[in-house]
Design brief:
The chain is of the alpha+beta class and 344 residues long. The chain has five helices and 18 strands.
Length: 344
């Protein structure tokens, strides 16, 4: 039987589904109206204010799920960019997403968003809301493989900050930026293990930390107020000293959304934090493991730089992304659930 669209009204929303380390990425191919704005950041504001119903259609059930993640490709104002991108999730729109950059690197080469792929690597310049991120895609015999990317300047924002966390009392933590801001805490502080504890317990602890930091710590970013918000909390195994063995973490971001991957921007921020504390040196590569799936990224600081008054580093993160399918979504006008819903 030939596949064809069922009865519907309105536009068709076409997507390519991928995953990086188990974390989904829904790349939106078509169906969005024009996204207005003279910069990627202004386009992010535009979709949040005018097109958010489409985020809910594609991220929420019945077409998505609570932990779905998406990427909308847009034009960039930077001449050196191959594409611009807006990231979306269950709460809204992120400023950076490493697992998505890894997937989009492959996607850009396979879907011919770069003109002439080169072996052994093809460079893809991806303009994220946080800035230009350079991805390098393994390419041989017409096939794409692993991807590494160079981050925007990443820095430790504050270390040994004490906040009062509901249900846990005073908790000391670090805050670091890797394209988005994260709070970092050793899961043992809550009597938890990032690879063995129940996901629900890890989510509850991380969410309590996020809420505490949001209410008690004022963040700022040197280049844009749009970047000055806490994206989530990353619970770690505490193994921050340099080692050839993997260190595990789990990231809870947005509206208690759980990252299945080691979290690309989180790895970036964690490497910057470790470098700031003198626990790793330039070009010392570490392996970061997802506490939820066991999938792995590598990360290393490759260059010192500045971000405003902050001492910063450029971080290289590497991983693999895979395709899972393509979909063509429609809406029926008498479907009362067509705009999406979430079960919390």
């Amino acid at each position: 039987m030939e596949m064809q669209l069922p009865p519907h009204e309105g536009v068709e929303l076409s997507v390519v589904d991928m995953h990086t380390g188990g974390e989904p990425l829904r790349v939106i191919l078509s169906g969005y109206p024009e996204v207005k704005g003279d910069s990627v950041l202004s386009k992010r504001r535009y979709v949040r204010e005018h097109l958010d119903h489409l985020r809910r259609v594609l991220m929420y059930e019945p077409r998505g799920h609570y932990d779905m993640y998406g990427a909308l490709i847009v034009d960039s104002e930077l001449p050196e960019a191959d594409l611009g991108v807006l990231f979306m999730h269950n709460e809204g729109y992120s400023t950076m997403c490493g697992h998505a950059v890894i997937a989009l690197g492959r996607f850009a080469v396979d879907y011919k968003l770069v003109k002439e792929p080169q072996s052994p690597e093809t460079q893809v310049n991806i303009h994220c809301p946080c800035g230009l991120v350079k991805a390098f895609v393994e390419y041989s015999g017409g096939k794409t493989g692993g991807v590494r990317f160079l981050s925007v300047p990443a820095f430790a924002f504050a270390t040994d900050v004490t906040v009062t966390v509901e249900g846990f009392g005073e908790v000391t933590l670090d805050i670091s930026y890797g394209g988005a801001f994260y709070a970092f805490v050793n899961a043992q502080r809550f009597g938890l293990d990032v690879t063995k504890s129940r996901t629900r317990d890890l989510v509850d602890a991380a969410t309590a930390v996020t809420n505490a930091v949001k209410s008690q710590v004022k963040l700022h970013h040197p280049t844009s107020d749009d970047l000055a918000f806490l994206y989530g909390t990353i619970l770690t195994d505490g193994k921050d000293n340099y080692s050839s063995e993997a260190t595990a973490n789990i990231c809870v971001f947005a509206e208690a959304q759980v990252d299945r991957s080691p979290t690309g921007s989180g790895v970036t921020a964690r490497v910057a934090l470790q470098y700031h504390k003198g626990l790793i040196q330039l070009n010392q590569s570490r392996t970061f493991q997802s506490g939820s799936t066991g999938s792995q990224f590598t990360g290393k600081a490759v260059e010192e730089t500045k971000c405003g008054d902050f001492k910063a580093v450029v971080v290289e993160v590497a991983g693999r992304a895979f395709y899972t399918g393509v979909s063509r979504f429609v809406q029926e006008p008498d479907d009362k659930l067509t705009h999406g819903f979430l079960l919390k």
